[in-house]
Amino acid sequence: MLKPFLNPNLIEVGCDEAGRGCLAGPVFAAAVILPKGVVIEGLHDSKQLTEHKRMALREEIEAKCHWAVVAINEKEIDKINILNASIKGMMSALDKLKVPFYHILVDGNRFKPYRDIPYTTIVKGDGKYQSIAAASILAKTHRDDYMKKIAEEFPDYGWEQNKGYPTLKHRDAIRKIGPCQYHRMSFTLLPEQLKLEF
Fold it and tell me: In this model, does residue 196 exceed pLDDT 70?
């Protein structure tokens, strides 16, 4: 059972991102405030949920919580690197929230000071705290929707299935037709294959 809050006496916001390990597309970041007394059954790390369950939870989160989602595109990722882009996305999502908050929970182990608001980084936080899990679900589902949309523009990469992650089909398509404008050119799109020597 995920914990609702780290600090029950404060208005707390959870932050997470989706798409850090992808070869293409933006990284999406989300911030979610779970109001006191609100119960959303089934909240968990988005990676542990089915697509159908994620979408059902997204509807409930967006209806019951204060939330914001931001995308940082591949050009910005190439410019400032994926870690900084992820943090920038989370901070931008915090900027968009319409209600005050007094503590920030961040999935992972890296963040930067945001205004004068204290924050706590939590490794695997999306499997420990409800607000981070909710943020992971929003970031993941909004990013998946975006990747499905641009998959219509570039169907050969299989983004509607792999969402930009480095699957065999995705990399085979890059070998065949090359990268497009949505690829992160600062990433290793086609790493050299290791040869086994006997």
Answer: no
